[in-house]
């Protein structure tokens, strides 16, 4: 356990070197955690959630209280973490733990230093960074000035770091809103080993970290399809009449939640079994509803199966079914969609609308790590797309339609502010994606800063408006050729020849640099058939088989002259439609978001589930059953902490998997349960067993009882006969004396 805290390091001071992280023998992504306090108690909860999310992340803790060193040292655990998640846990008062009193001016300076260190780390690190501001102790908050400092510092950090898309700040108030723990502080464990929180709070904090880990991984959901009756409102508009339906608190909360999702970039659709005129009239009859008809990108209001309507919506929006979430109150309708469209994430609402808000708050899939400007404009872009579709239907020919668009394509080197959108494209683009390599912001920045890669962005607009940043190309150049790493174009810009202009631009760059060819690797998936059709149409004669797929080796001059033909575009569109409607897609992790939102949203329940899951470990070394009520109670406490089904009274704590952190937590539980202080010397004695701990507790209780209790015990002993005394002594020697003789 730590004996003393290190002083925080100013960003202007070179940090002490951390041990290099090159000794890891595995390539699994890391959850790298650095804290101002002892945080290893998070491990069981994080390990549980990693399993629930079916991820492969490993959990690593940095050295005790080395936050600034970890943020500033490129060779540290956090500095060297690539493709995982970096987590920094800060409790402001820890910076003054071993000082004489709290100097708020020094703490304020440390907060500013933290802001600078996080900013520097976010720019250079290879993983997104989560900063959690953990709650202060009741003693720290008892002073009004200190309480004001804590609140102001949380808000200032959140505001100062908001522009960093690779950083997510979770304040103590946000944590408390989602996962409230009434009594989170553990003064005894804080004193013994700087473990300031109860197991229940560590379960809440670990869950929030896992939730942000899940949000940092792009899941690809873009559309929420909503039912109407008993979902958007209470009642049936076809029976109660448009004016007869009710807007209760639950339905209003759901609509407000969905409006916020739209503002964050999700598309909203109606998919409901109703007469369309009834639904439209209901919206007109209730102007007080947060959601209005113009908020929906598409409508399916009829009596057909919802699975069929969802497929129709996917075709209209040119998106895959695995981009959709269905929210419906009917279990039967949800079951039909799960059977007919297994790619869709189906969420069944509770029958009681008062449950809506809490359920939606804990559906992790609605969390957004960050929201880009492109996300905020998505709904408007799809409204423009609807206008384009209408213009296409009215055109006499495809050539005429494309000419009427007056398309403008701008291809240029990526700017820093475009990085979040480029990373988002690598995560979300499936159809026009040559290799489907997914990259985070940090990874893209790292490979560009290393000098080995260049990044081009593609911005498209036409007479209806801007498509936004819809494409990206990552490539490297050597003495002979350009080799493409990533080639992406959003589905909303497909079928207009933009992808051909991107290919030609690569050929032009190669020619300008005096290079002979452009090499383009292609890895086939179930959904990137349009990409394969593009390359084959551009030059199937330059295709060869490589070790991990196809490689197209285009002469630079040939590729620079590539132009689109409408027949190619129609072929690509047909391939795109086949991939959307006929190819099942089951790559997404099968996290049970509904179960998580219903059953695992309360910290105590989460803690119990974590402890229960850990009891699947092997049985203890012995089976010596408890002999007294005290031993029985202690054995249960040990089993909960150690994650084993049962504990024998002579099993050694450390042989069962215990360690110093668990020992501190154990002694804290003992203090709370039995109101006695047990020294760590008992833990590190020759044998630390349930039997020995029970004896230590009994001795402390006797010592705490005072002279009156001693006198009563002596008087009781004096009243015994010689035979009774000898029997009691013999029983004590056998270790079977009752707790209260």
What are the key terms here?
5-stranded parallel β-sheet, 741 residues, Aminopeptidase, 31 helices, alpha/beta, disordered N terminus, single chain, globular
Q: What's the layout of helices and strands?
A:
Elements: E1 30-35, H1 43-52, E2 58-61, H2 67-72, E3 85-90, H3 104-124, E4 129-133, H4 138-141, H5 144-161, E5 167-170, H6 172-178, H7 187-193, H8 199-216, E6 223-226, H9 237-240, H10 249-263, E7 267-273, H11 276-285, E8 298-302, H12 306-317, E9 324-328, H13 331-340, E10 345-348, H14 356-361, H15 373-376, H16 378-394, H17 398-405, E11 408-413, H18 419-428, E12 432-433, H19 441-449, E13 454-462, E14 465-477, E15 481-489, H20 498-512, E16 517-522, H21 529-539, E17 543-546, E18 549-555, H22 556-560, H23 566-581, H24 593-599, H25 603-614, H26 629-642, H27 660-674, H28 680-683, H29 690-705, H30 707-718, H31 722-733
Helix pairs in contact: 1-8, 3-5, 7-27, 8-25, 21-23, 26-27, 26-29
Question: Concise description?
Answer:
The chain has 31 helices and 18 strands. With 741 residues, it is α/β, with parallel strands linked by helices.
């Amino acid at each position: 356990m730590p004996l003393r805290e290190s002083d925080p390091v100013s960003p202007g001071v070179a940090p002490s070197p951390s041990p290099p992280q090159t000794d890891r023998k595995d390539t699994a992504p890391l959850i790298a955690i650095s804290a101002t306090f002892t945080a290893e108690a998070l491990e069981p909860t994080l390990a549980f959630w990693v399993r629930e999310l079916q991820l492969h992340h490993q959990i690593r803790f940095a050295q005790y209280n080395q936050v600034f060193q970890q943020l500033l040292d490129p060779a540290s655990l956090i500095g060297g973490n690539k493709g995982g998640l970096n987590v920094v846990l800060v409790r402001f008062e820890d910076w003054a733990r071993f000082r004489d009193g709290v100097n708020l001016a020094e703490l304020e300076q440390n907060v500013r230093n933290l802001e600078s260190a996080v900013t520097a780390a976010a720019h250079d690190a290879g993983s997104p960074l989560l900063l959690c501001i953990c709650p202060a102790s009741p003693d720290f908050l008892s002073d009004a000035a200190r309480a004001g400092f804590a609140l102001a510092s949380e808000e200032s950090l959140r505001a100062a770091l908001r522009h960093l898309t690779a950083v997510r700040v979770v304040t103590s108030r946000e944590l408390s809103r989602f996962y409230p723990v009434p009594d989170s502080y553990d003064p005894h464990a804080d004193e013994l080993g700087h473990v300031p929180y109860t197991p229940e709070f560590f379960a809440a904090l670990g869950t929030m970290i896992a939730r942000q880990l899940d949000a940092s991984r792009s899941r690809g959901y873009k559309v929420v399809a909503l039912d109407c009756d008993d979902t958007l409102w209470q009642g049936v508009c076809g029976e109660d009449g448009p004016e007869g339906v009710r807007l209760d608190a639950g339905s209003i909360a759901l609509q407000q939640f969905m409006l916020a999702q739209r503002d964050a970039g999700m598309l909203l659709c109606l998919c409901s079994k109703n007469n369309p005129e009834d639904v439209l009239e209901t919206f007109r009859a209730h102007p007080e509803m947060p959601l209005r008809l113009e908020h929906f990108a598409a409508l399916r209001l009829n009596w057909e199966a919802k699975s069929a309507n969802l497929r129709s919506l996917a075709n209209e929006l040119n998106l895959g079914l695995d981009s959709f979430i269905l929210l419906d109150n009917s279990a039967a309708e949800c079951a039909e969609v799960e059977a007919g469209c297994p790619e869709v994430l189906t969420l069944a609402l509770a029958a009681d609308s008062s449950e809506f808000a809490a359920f939606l708050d804990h559906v992790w899939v609605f969390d957004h790590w960050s929201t880009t400007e492109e996300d905020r404009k998505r709904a408007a872009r799809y409204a423009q797309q609807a206008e384009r579709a209408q213009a296409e239907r009215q055109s006499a020919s495809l050539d005429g339609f494309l000419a009427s668009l007056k398309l403008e394509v701008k291809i240029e080197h990526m700017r820093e502010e475009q990085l979040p959108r480029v990373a988002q494209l690598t995560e979300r683009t499936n159809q026009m994606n040559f290799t489907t390599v997914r990259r985070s912001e940090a990874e893209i920045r790292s490979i560009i800063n290393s000098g080995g890669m260049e990044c081009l962005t593609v911005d498209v607009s036409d007479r209806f408006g801007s498509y936004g940043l819809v494409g990206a190309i990552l490539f490297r150049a050597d003495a002979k050729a350009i080799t493409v790493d990533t080639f992406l174009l959003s589905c909303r810009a497909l079928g207009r020849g933009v992808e051909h202009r991107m290919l030609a631009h690569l050929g032009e760059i190669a020619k300008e640099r005096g290079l002979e060819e452009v090499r383009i690797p292609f890895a086939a998936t179930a959904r990137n058939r349009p990409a394969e059709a593009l390359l084959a149409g551009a030059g199937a004669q330059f295709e060869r088989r490589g070790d991990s797929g196809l490689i197209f080796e285009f002469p630079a001059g040939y590729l620079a002259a590539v132009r689109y033909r409408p027949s190619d575009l129609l072929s690509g569109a047909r391939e795109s439609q086949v991939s959307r409607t006929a190819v099942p897609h089951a790559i997404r992790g099968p996290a049970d978001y509904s179960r998580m939102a219903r059953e695992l949203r309360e910290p105590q329940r989460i803690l119990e589930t974590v402890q229960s899951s850990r009891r699947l470990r092997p049985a203890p070394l012995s089976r010596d059953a408890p002999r007294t009520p005290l031993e029985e109670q202690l054995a249960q406490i040990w089993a909960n902490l150690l994650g084993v089904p049962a504990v024998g009274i002579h099993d050694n704590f450390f042989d069962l998997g215990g360690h110093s952190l668990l020992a501190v937590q154990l002694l804290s539980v003992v203090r709370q349960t039995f109101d006695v202080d047990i020294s760590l010397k008992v833990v590190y004695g020759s044998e630390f067993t349930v039997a020995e701990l029970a004896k230590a507790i009994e001795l402390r209780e006797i010592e705490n009882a005072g002279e009156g209790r001693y006198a009563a015990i002596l008087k009781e002993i004096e009243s015994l006969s010689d035979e009774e005394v000898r029997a009691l002594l013999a029983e004590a020697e056998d270790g079977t004396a009752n707790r209260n003789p």
